[in-house]
Sequence to fold (228 residues):
Amino acid sequence: DSGVTQTPKHLITATGQRVTLRCSPRSGDLSVYWYQQSLDQGLQFLIQYYNGEERAKGNILERFSAQQFPDLHSELNLSSLELGDSALYFCASSVATGSGANVLTFGAGSRLTVL
Amino acid sequence: QKEVEQDPGPLSVPEGAIVSLNCTYSNSAFQYFMWYRQYSRKGPELLMYTYSSGNKEDGRFTAQVDKSSKYISLFIRDSQPSDSATYLCAMKDQGGGADGLTFGKGTHLIIQP
Fold:
């Protein structure tokens, strides 16, 4: 157990729908990161939050949004889902903002299937 | 040309063999180099990390960084079936922000008993 908790583990939904993925970071970590992993693209960085504030943005679609709450848990909202959004979504956390080594601890992921 | 290139494999070797996994990169600003191991249906877990050039050893694992060639390697000695996983290299520059952390696509390693 890495200490990063993600729910749900599996999710099957239809095109056009909206889903919310939830992440609780490791105790003491202030930064939360969201990644998308697909077979052809590998791990793609979506967005990072640090202590409630958006810190960095990657290849996140406009249909996707995220936030980090005062208790530091984070949610990733995916809307108007398309078949191509089917992937593993990982949350990771770290102590600091990202400078230096910035070692990430990953959760077990949420597998999203869009039919 | 992608920033980080990694052969996806699969790489299949017999138990006990020495395994060499490699990544090449193009961004000379990368200073931190990491190897993550990802078992099937699990999240990546940090295996090794090195700063700048040189070698680092941890048990059966050795990480090497050659910044002049923009080439990093992970060696696994006395490989075990439990080492079967996908190995992802990751690299980062000195600056802050996760957008500075770049992952390779991963090499799928199979250790045959």
In short: Chain B touches chain A through 25 residues (CB under 8 Å). The two ends of chain B are 37 Å apart (CA to CA).
